[in-house]
Amino acid sequence: MASPSHAPPDHGADSVETRSPELRKDPVTNRWVIFSPARAKRPTDFKSKSPENPNPKPSSCPFCIGREHECAPEIFRVPPDDDPNWKLRVIENLYPALSRNLETQSNHQSATATSRTIVGFGFHDVVIEAPLHSIQLSDIDPVGIGDVLIAYRKRIEQIAQHDSINYIQVFKNHGASAGASMSHSHSQIMALPVVPPTVSSRLGGTKDYFDETGKCCLCEAKSKHFVIDESSHFVSVAPYASTYPFEVWIVPKDHSSHFHHLDDVKAVDLGGLLKLMLQKIAKQLNDPPYNYMIHTSPLKVTESQLPYTHWFLQIVPQLSGVGGFEMGTGCYINPVFPEDVAKVLREVSLT
């Protein structure tokens, strides 16, 4: 993400034909992105080819209210205390990628274990965001979305008590092509015994930027060319070197390393801005499938790392696939400049 001093001139959303390819390196993701507008139509013409139309309620969705007995074990619900009229539930994943039953083994690695192999201990949970099948996250009011965010926080705080866990990833897959196996609105939490490579790369990139400038690169996110909207405590931006077309980040205005330090007031504030961004993306891009991810700091981040670690929420509409070049190089081609994306999304009217 560039600081205002690094911001390129505002070329305007309709000047695609005059733009030259450009490579930008993002200090946050620590990767190069090729912007190649000649490969694309105008930014205002981007639409999803496979919109995520609301699915009719299947005959047996275990996430729907009244079918709680068909799910994996419940961890907690809101309101609590077995209230049958729940608003959201956090449950174990029926098909977890990691096992919560291996903690003893993970704390006592066998003599044959190496740094390349460790016990698959971890947590894989599901957050059912609404009791009714017809409700999508963007249909919920800011307070209700805030409740979902607070549920993430509560579950992270619970999991963080386990010493073997080093990183916790919150993510949402909306739509089959975005990886959602269930059409009922939900998100997931995975807790890992390792720090994933993308997270390590992010820490390296933000450290380099801090060492060079003395500033946190995500605190520098508020360039006027890239801002879409803002609330009291958060700003939504099209990142300076966005990996994907129409990618949006929501960033805390105040420096904050850990998502789970989010208080209730800020959770509602973030809920409102997240709702606005999801609605704008749906309207502008023909209701595309999407993913969002909360990028936070490792649980055991050191005191010296806090000045350059800053959490944020990334929204990625599924508009294009990943090809061999991207898989082979880790370098992505984006056909639309982020300053054009910011301009287009700023101008979306929801009325």
Would you give an account of this structure?
It is built from 6 helices and 13 strands. A hairpin with a 4-residue loop joins strand 1 (22-26) and strand 2 (31-35). It has helices at 103-107, 142-159, 197-213, 264-284, 324-329, 338-346, and strands spanning 22-26, 31-35, 74-78, 88-92, 123-128, 167-174, 186-192, 227-230, 234-237, 248-252, 290-295, 312-317, 332-334. 22% of the residues lie in helices and 20% in strands. It has a 10-stranded antiparallel sheet with strand order 3-4-5-7-6-11-12-10-9-8. Helix 2 (142-159) packs across helix 4. By secondary structure, the chain is of the alpha+beta class. The longest helix is centred in the C-terminal third of the chain and has 21 residues, at 264-284. Mean pLDDT is 87; it is low at 1-16. Keywords: Carbohydrate metabolism, Nucleotidyltransferase, Transferase. Residues 20-196 form the Galactose-1-phosphate uridyl transferase N-terminal domain.
Major sheet summary line = 10 strands, antiparallel
Mean of pLDDT: 87
User: How many β strands by DSSP?
Assistant: 13
Rg (C-alpha, Å): 20 Å
The total of helices stands at 6
Give the N-terminus to C-terminus distance in angstroms: 31 Å
Helix-strand makeup class: alpha+beta
Strand content: 15-25%
Low-confidence stretches: 1-16
Shape: globular
Order of helices and strands: EEEEHEHEEHEEEHEEHEH
The portion of residues assigned to helices is 10-25%
Biased composition (Basic and acidic residues): 8-28
Protein name: Galactose-1-phosphate uridyl transferase N-terminal domain-containing protein
InterPro entries: ADP-glucose_phosphorylase (IPR053177), GalP_UDPtransf1 (IPR001937), GalP_Utransf_N (IPR005849), HIT-like_sf (IPR036265)
Domain Galactose-1-phosphate uridyl transferase N-terminal: 20-196
